[in-house]
Every structure is written in C-alpha cells, then in structure tokens.
Amino acid sequence: MKTKIVILGAAESGVGAALLAQQQGYDVFVSDAGKIAAGYKAELAAQQIAFEEGHHSEEKILSADEVIKSPGIPEKSTLIQQIRAKNIPVISEIEFAFRFIGNSKIIAITGSNGKTTTTALTYHICKHADKDCAMVGNIGYSFAKQVAEDPKPLYVAELSSFQLDDIKTFRPDVAVLTNITEDHLDRYDYKIENYVHSKFRIAENQLPGDVFIYCQDDETTMKYITNYPIQSQAAPITMNKQLPQGAYLTNAKMHLKWKNEEMQMNVEDFALKGKHNQYNSMAASLAATAVDIRKDKIREALQTFESLEHRMEPAGTVRGVEFVNDSKATNVNSTWFALESMTKPVILILGGVDKGNDYSLLQELVKEKVKAIVCMGTDNRKIHEAFGDTVSLMVNTENAKEAVQAAFHFANKGDVVLLSPACASFDLFKNYEDRGNQFKQEIKDL
Fold first, then answer.
1. For residue 155, which phi and psi values (nearest 5 degrees)?
2. C-alpha 358 chain-centroid distance
3. Residue 189 pLDDT > 80, yes or no?
C-alpha cells in the first residue's frame, strides 16, 4: 500500500510538495478551497496528480496518512482541527522537502524584517563564489519543487514563521534569525511569545556542528534566547561591541571573525545602504563564511549586489520628485527602516490590511521626515488616528493611480514619494508585488 499524502493548498509550496511526493512514489491528492491558478493546474495535470478546487472533500482528506499544509492556512481552521483530532500528522512543505535532500547543506533564514534581503544577498555571495546552489522557500522556487526537479548541494532558504510552525526534523546547517518584531500576531493569538517560539524553531534541531547566527542588538531575540536549549555554535552580529567570534561594526568597518580568520571591510563599500542593510550584510557574510566561502569572494559580492524589486527600489524621478517602491514593507518595522534611511522630505503612501499594527513606533520618524501621508487601503481609520495630529496633509485614496497622483500633487522638487505601506496588500491588490508593479506603472503614466 502506498502512503497517502494529502496536500492542502495548491500554490507554489503545495504544488512543489505534490510534484516531489509523486516522484517519491506516494499516493497524492491536492485540495484547495479556492481557485487554482492555471499554471499550477497545468503542472499537476502534466504529472497526473489528482486535485480538487473550490472545496475540500473532508472524507478523502481525513483518510490521509499525512497532511502537508500550505503556510497560509491557519491552525484555527475547522479542517485542520478535524485533522488534528484524528491524529493525522501535519507537516509543512519544507519539512517534507528536507526528507529528500541527501547530503545537501541548507542555510535557512528567518526574521520579521530583512530576511528576503539577507537571503538574496547570501545567495548572491554563494553564486559569486561558484557554489552550485538554489534560492528556495518564500523567495524563488518552492523548496520541494527544487528538490524534485533540480537538486543542489546547497540550498539558501527564506522561511516564514508559518513554514517553521509545522516542522519536525528540519535542520539547517546554518540558521539565521535576523530579528523579531511584532508581526502576524493575528495568527499567534496576539501573544508575542507564540510568534517568538515559531522563529526560534529554526535552530531547535541543530547539532553542535551547526551554526546559529542572530542579532545581539535585537531586544526581543536577546530577551527570549536563554529559554531555548540551542546546541549549535553561536555566531552573533552587533554594532555595539567587539566580539571574539561573529560579525561586528566599529568605526564604519565590518569585522568578520570566524574560527581563526578575520576579515575587515569598510561599510562605504557595501552596495546596500542604510543601517538595517549593514545588519543584513553582516548576517549574509557570516552565513557564507560558515559554509567555507573565501573572504575575497564575500568582499566582492557585497560590492556588486543589486537591490531587490519592491524593497526600497528606485522607481523613477519625475520633475525632480523621486519615487521609491518599498511595497514589500508589510509591517510597521519595515516602514520604520525605510523612513530611517530617508534624507529628503517624504510623502508617505501607507495602508492596506492591518495585522494588529502599532503605528506609534513610527511617530518620531513621521514627525521628523514626513510632510504628507497618502492612505491607500479600504480602512484607514487607524492611520488617521495615529498621525492626524502630526501631519497636516493627509488624504484617502482607493487605488494605485489615485495614490500616485495625490502624492505627486503634494510633492515639490527634491522630495521623495515613498510607497512603504506597513500593511498587507490583500484589500486592493493580489499581493505586494502587484501593489509595487501598479505603483511603478502609475509613475510611468504621470
């Protein structure tokens, strides 16, 4: 009898898991409560994988030996509760992929902010050093799909807390935790401890030969780190003091110390600017060092990295007004970092689906740098309440076109229009990429 695997959700991670499960000889069934995108449907059909969309056939699902669930499905869902009640094991796609990687190595990166940049930068360093590797997880291909179609000796994986929630044995050789700030608390009963616990799971299965990179300057990380019996080698990063091992910044120089070697590099030479990117660059450099990449390769890669789409991406200049697309800022902290790096007066485009945001964090920076706020969301009350007394120019808009036009109207030559919404995008857009792309298109049409 073949083992029966049911996969809930048929987007990137679900379809990837289905392809790998089929290849490994499982009996596979995919179920999605919504509509499955045409491209994904074609992939499932090509491999003759059974699937359904628009509903869940409970009887079929509850007869599974194991369930792989999409990171988007909350634990509270009735179906997941029923599966749990029947004691059917539930795992994530990264846990499933991990079973089939053989001797390959993994650098896994999580954190509330900076994880995408750190992942892309780590991958860039590895590629630059001629490593045969792939970037997987939340960015790029699903991990399972990569393992099924084009296995590599090294994977650089960006992982969300939702992906880590359902691991059992997943063990990265190098784990990176960039920072922990309040995000997605709606999925964690509004308890920061639950969210913190998810993030630390990245290191829970690590062995003494593995490496754990974390930020000593991050308050939440340091408050909780002693609660977890982490076995791997600690590799901290900091801007506040010298370290015997790890990465630190003093006098605008990054020092990388690992085993018996040390490398120094002037932060002026980093391609990525801003304090938050100095943390990301330290984390990525340390991760690369931990998989034995030479210092000169790290140095060259840090100088040549191109910034990511939708993450502080220059989106053009119109009549002396600069536009910056930071659509990937889906929480308040990301927007804080964006504002912190601004040197010109800002017209800020904010808003979308609020995940329990505390806007008071932005208060000081908004007072100092923002001359107008353009709200772009279906419900902007909290933004008005937070900044109504600080910013006199504030307007509601209902789409990217209105938002760009309003922002341009408020701007003078030498100002920056910054799209850094601090919210998810699902009220008006498909996702943050769609939001960023529409923003860029409207700038072209000005």
1. -115, 135
2. 20
3. no
158, two tokens: 């960006």
Chain segment 54-106, per-residue pLDDT in tens: 999 999 999 999 999 998 888 889 999 999 999 999 999 999 999 999 999 99
pLDDT band at 323 (very low <50, low <70, confident <90, very high): very high
Rounded CA separation 275/316 (Å): 23
All domains in the chain, ordered by first residue: 4-91 (3.40.50.720), 95-304 (3.40.1190.10), 313-444 (3.90.190.20)
CB atoms within 10 A of CB 430: 11
Residue 251: DSSP 8-state: T
Burial 298-336 (b: 16+ CB within 10 A, else e): bbebbeebebbebbbbebeeeeebbbbbbbbbbbbbbbb
Question: Structure pTM?
Answer: 0.76
For residue 204, pLDDT over 90 is answered with yes
Angle at 95 between CA 3 and CA 423, to 5 degrees: 125
Indicate the average pLDDT of the chain: 93
DSSP secondary structure of 300-366: HHHHHPPPPTTSSEEEEEETTEEEEE-TT--SHHHHHHHHHT--S-EEEEE-SB-SS--GGGGHHHH
Burial class (CB in 10 A: 0-12, 13-18, 19+), 384: middle
Mark 399-408 as b/e (b = at least 16 C-beta within 10 Å): ebeebbebbb
- 213-230 pLDDT per residue, tens: 999 999 999 999 999 999
